[in-house]
Amino acid sequence: MIGRYLRSNLGRGLSTSPLPTPLRAWILVPLFVVVAMTVGFGTDLLRFAPLQSEIAPLLPFTLFIFPSLLEEMFFRGVLIPRETLSAGRRGATRAVVLSSLAFVAWHPINALAFNHSAIPVFLDPWFLVIVVALGVTCGHAYVVSRSVWVPVIIHWATVSVWVLFLGGRNLVLEL
C-alpha cells in the first residue's frame, strides 16, 4: 500500500515534466519574493553579499540535491496527494497547509538534531515566516502542476539566490 502510494504520488510527480505547467502554478512566486525580501531585508536575514568562494560555482548543483530535491520530494511529493485538487479546494488547501507546517517544523528539528551551526538561522522566527511562505508557494505549485519539479525549481532558485547573493550560509557544507 505504501509502495503503491509512493509510485502513484511521488513517482508520477517526478516523471511529470514541469514544462507544460499552467501559469497559475507559478502565481504565488511573486508574492513569495515580496514577502521574503520584505521580511529578510527588514530583519537583516538578507543582505546584498555575493559569496566570495572558490566553491561558489559548485553550490547550485549541491543546493539542487539538498535541500531542494530531497525536501520537495518528501514535503510535496509524499505529503501532498498528487490528485488532491480533485478533492476540492478545501482538501487541497488542507494538504498544502499540513505539508507547509511539517516543512517549517523540519527546519528547527534539522538544526537541533543534525546541524547545530544552523540554530541561529533555523530557529529565527522571521526566517520561519519566510519558510512558511516558501512552503505554501511550493505546495500550491505542486498541487496545480502535479509535478515535483516545479516546487524543486522554486526551492532551488530561492536557496541558490540566498546563498550566492544575499548572505545566506551554505549550511550543507557546515554539517
What does it look like?
By secondary structure, the chain is mainly alpha-helical. The chain has one domain. Helices cover 66% and strands 0% of the residues. The chain is built from seven helices and no strands. Helix 4 packs across helix 6. The longest helix is centred in the middle third of the chain and has 25 residues. The protein is globular. It starts with a helix and ends in a 10-residue tail after the last helix.
**Number of helical runs?**
7
Helix content: 55-70%
- The ordered string of helix (H) and strand (E) elements is HHHHHHH
The proportion of strand residues reads under 5%
Radius of gyration: 16 Å
What structural class do helix, strand and pairing data support?
mainly alpha
Oligomer: single chain
Number of domains: 1
Task: Note the main sheet.
Answer: none
Overall 3D geometry?
globular
Uncertain regions: pLDDT < 50 for 5+ in a row?
none
Mean pLDDT: 95
**N→C terminal distance:** 35 Å
- The total strand number stands at 0
Could you list some keywords that capture this structure?
single chain
